[in-house]
Amino acid sequence: MKKRIDPRVKLLFIILLTTLAVLAKDVIYMSIILVVGIVINLCLKTDILYAIKRLRHFLSILIFIAIVQSLSIKGGRVLIPIGNTALLSTKGLQFSLEFLLRMSIIVVSGLIATSTDGREMIDGLLKLHMPYELAFMTSISLRFIPVFSEEFKTRLNAISMRGIDIKKLSLPKKIRVYAYLISPTISGCIMRSEVLAKSMQVRGFRAHPKRTMLRELKMGILDYTLVLISLLIAAAFLAGMYKHGILVTF
Fold this sequence. Notes:
Layout: H1 7-23, H2 27-43, H3 48-54, H4 56-72, E1 78-82, E2 85-89, H5 90-113, H6 118-127, H7 132-141, H8 144-161, H9 171-202, H10 221-243
Antiparallel strand pairs: 1-2
Helix pairs in contact: 1-2, 1-5, 1-10, 2-5, 4-5, 6-7, 8-9
């Protein structure tokens, strides 16, 4: 039987990738972190193409935000001038690229959790001495992005059924349509969370102060080896960013 990676190791991958994404402020370093995240997903046999297909509407929103950010932030060399006003500058372009890379790393990190069954992920969090309620909510939150994407897609389909072809709309009208869709999408996610809460109550969630586990998780040599390698790589990244002065400081 093929050895499966312990969910705690995958949680470590997620923590390290997202932490490096937040602390890095260089496009090259962030690109390398993104590639590392993609390689990890490929090794875990995560269906990245299917995930991108499901998240394409969410990713389009991120691209739209990055474009707005690139046009609103001024500084550096002017790339596209309009009269005496700089429409696009190198600083704005840099900030938009950093935003896109940072969000892409977070999304790719979230995909790592999909390679593990939700029950195993909760067991891993419990092994880290996290309260069961927090572990359960963390497992649900890791799958929030696909739910948000599905809700957004449902709203887009509703608009299309009313005879509105979004692809043929001008850019200002597209912006207005997407802005109108954000509020009902969030409302739909809240309604789903209420249904989930009622389902949990019916099934006796928190009926007993202590829960038992069907399967006991144990880390093997492969798991400890991956933990050591990932910590060394993360430390090397942090040292390199600190040396080149591109580490975000608070």
